[in-house]
Amino acid sequence: MVMELFLIERIAMRAFRRLSRRTYNWLLNLGHNGAGTTGVGRQYFHLHLVSDATGETLIAASRAVAAQYEGVSSIEHVYPLIRSKGQLDRAIAEIEEAPGIVLFTLVDQQLAEELQAACTKAGVPCLSVLQPILDLFQSYIGTAMRLRPGAQHMLNADYFRRIEALNFTVLHDDGQQAENFEEADVVLMGVSRTSKTPTSIYLANRGIKAANIPLVPAIPLPDSVLGLKKPLVVGLVASAERIVQIRENRLLALKADPDSPYVDRLLVAEEIRRARKICAAQGWPVIDVTLRSIEETAAAVIDLIKIHHLKHAAAS
User: Fold this and answer.
1) What is the CATH number of the domain that holds 28?
2) SS3 call for 85
3) Residues 58 and 183 both lie in one domain
4) Domain for residue 147, yes or no?
5) What percent of the chain has pLDDT over 90?
6) Same-domain check for residues 230 and 292
7) What contacts 24+ positions apart, CB below 8 Å, involve 248-251?
8) Which one-letter DSSP state was computed for residue 18?
9) Quick one: DSSP state of residue 220?
């Protein structure tokens, strides 16, 4: 994962460990104190996420922690853009109706204190996810902060850089306008069903101009791609078994011929060999996405981009 999310996950985990013993036991014994089980014995609990912004930070941090508990699912209640007492009161009413863990990111101290008081009264655990990070920054930087709800979503240069990257990526998806690939930061190349498009979109949301092009049997890559100088080209591959499985599911969804060469294991294996051979000949790095999520693949690509930039800087 990216460094920012990694920091949030680590601090959230530490904050959970600092909860009172009563709350810690409540989390581990989810069959009690408002939690329940499904018909197959799976445990679940209500998770309330209260934010004065979009709630993305809370969602990412809470899911990172919840993923550590096997057989347990959270029922998420997300309350974004809570910036007034009336909005908070409505969230508190829902929390009292379905008690569970409450996580919040509220920079307005009065609203935060009101939420904490309501949770204490209702007997539900409540935690400020950002407070440990704010305290850490404050102790290190030493200067007073100016609290601004949703400050990370301000329309600054970084925001417009991400919008520009998204526009570029959409226009250069699946080999479109390959003659303009030189403007990209990275070009993803791979056989069908190696998650080129979703990885490109994820990278674009990080402000990286990502283009992608499929490697189609019997069709050579355009000279404009083989001759790229500025962007990093990365090959995406996966095991033949994994690609066949994904392609079979796609054919099933499209109600297409299940005996198509598209899902022939030997032909798929040959596609993968060809992809690796091209990358080796061009000196392009390869990422095996068989067991990687989109986020993990994107993180690996970002690391390769950093190395690519360092090499170019050293050469210039």
Assistant:
1) 3.40.50
2) helix
3) no
4) no
5) 69
6) yes
7) 250/193
8) T
9) P
**Residues 166, 308 share a domain:** yes
How many Å apart are CA 54 and CA 157, to the nearest integer?
19
- How far is the C-alpha of 33 from the C-alpha of 23, rounded, in Å? 10
Residue 203 corresponds to which amino acid?
L
Q: Are residues 45 and 130 in the same domain?
A: yes
163 and 82 within one domain: no
Packing angle between helix 265-282 and helix 240-254, nearest 10 degrees? 120
Between CA 68 and CA 252 the distance in angstroms is 33
Has residue 24 got a pLDDT over 60?
Answer: no
Confidence of residue 1 (pLDDT cuts 50, 70, 90): very low
Residues 132 and 164 in one domain: no
| CATH code for position 273 | 3.40.50.300
Q: Tell how strand 43-51 and strand 36-37 pair up.
A: antiparallel
Q: Global pTM?
A: 0.71
Instruction: Provide the CB-side half-sphere exposure for 178 (13 A, CA).
Output: 16
Amino acid 271: pLDDT: 97
91 within domain boundaries: yes
Residue 114 and residue 161 in one domain: no
> What DSSP letter does each residue of 239-280 carry, written as one string?
-HHHHHHHHHHHHHHHT--TT-GGG-HHHHHHHHHHHHHHHH
Q: How far apart are CA 188 and CA 186, in angstroms?
A: 7
Cα–Cα distance for residue pair 149/48, rounded to 1 Å? 19
Question: Would you say 107 and 137 are in contact if contact means Cβ atoms under 8 Å apart?
Answer: no
Name the domain count of the chain.
Answer: 2
Q: Could you tell me the residue range of the domain that residue 297 belongs to?
A: 157-315
Structure confidence by residue, pLDDT tens digits, 73-96: 999 999 999 999 999 999 999 999
- Report CA-CA distances (Å) from 242 to 66, 223, 257, 262, 275: 27, 30, 19, 13, 16
The encoded tokens of residue 7 equal 């920091």
User: By mean pLDDT, which of 6-20, 106-120, 220-234 is the weakest?
Assistant: 6-20
